[in-house]
Design brief:
By secondary structure, the protein is of the alpha+beta class. It is 26% helix and 27% strand.
């Protein structure tokens, strides 16, 4: 699985273009905005984008999803149905966060724990990781050891839990019970900021390091 990060929106959200290096069939994960920048990256890499994948329903992760889906005539897949209320509230999110107006939409398919998503010849496993939002999911590529974790975990930090239906303990459980078992060597791509490995965060993250739970 190959990927290229595309920082988008004033929040510098890590949108990702991912693709199978054998077929060049791909997907866009969390297109939060800056549609033309995303499309330029697709063209530059000669990727045949077949779907849009969403980790959760916050506007900086989904703001350009509907426009991209319409322009490329492709489906929107994810997040978990528990984030439906966030997608229904996109006009209010637009206003609250100072984004360009975004109409509500319903994905073509919601995802749940244990689902798999095919990207060319590659497989992404779906983990339901609530806490930041109730319907947050993580995409994990076992063959390459890379996980797209959205706003669950960051280098040296964890996702906010001061939003409606956020749950701090659920977030901690998602990280320690869903992400850690993937393996210390797994590289993760967060929704914002630099990449890290699960092992590095288990050793040093001030919110979820192993030493905090001994």
């Amino acid at each position: 699985m190959k990927y290229q990060l595309i920082p988008v929106t004033p929040f510098q959200q890590n949108c990702s273009l991912i693709w199978c290096e054998h077929s060049f069939k791909g997907a866009v994960i969390d297109p939060g905005g800056d549609l033309e920048r995303i499309l330029a990256t697709v063209t530059k890499n000669n990727v045949q984008v077949e779907q849009i994948l969403l980790t959760h329903g916050h506007i900086d992760h989904v703001g350009a999803a509907q426009c991209l889906a319409e322009q490329l005539d492709i489906p929107i897949v994810g997040p978990h149905v528990a984030d439906r209320f966030w997608l229904e509230g996109l006009p209010k999110q637009s206003q609250h966060f100072g984004f360009v107006h975004c109409d509500p939409f319903v994905p073509h398919h919601f995802l749940q724990e244990g689902d798999e998503v095919k990207v060319g010849q590659q497989i992404l496993s779906v983990l339901h990781c609530p806490g930041h939002t109730p319907g947050h999911i993580v995409f994990f590529a076992p063959a390459t050891g890379v996980a797209w974790v959205g706003d669950v975990l960051f280098k040296g930090a964890i996702g906010r839990t001061d939003f409606p239906q956020s749950d701090h303990q659920a977030l901690i459980n998602s990280i320690t019970q869903k992400l850690w078992p993937l393996g210390n060597e797994v590289l993760f791509i967060p929704g914002h900021g630099p990449l890290s490995t699960l092992g590095e965060e288990r050793a040093t993250n001030p919110f979820v390091a192993d030493q905090l739970f001994d």
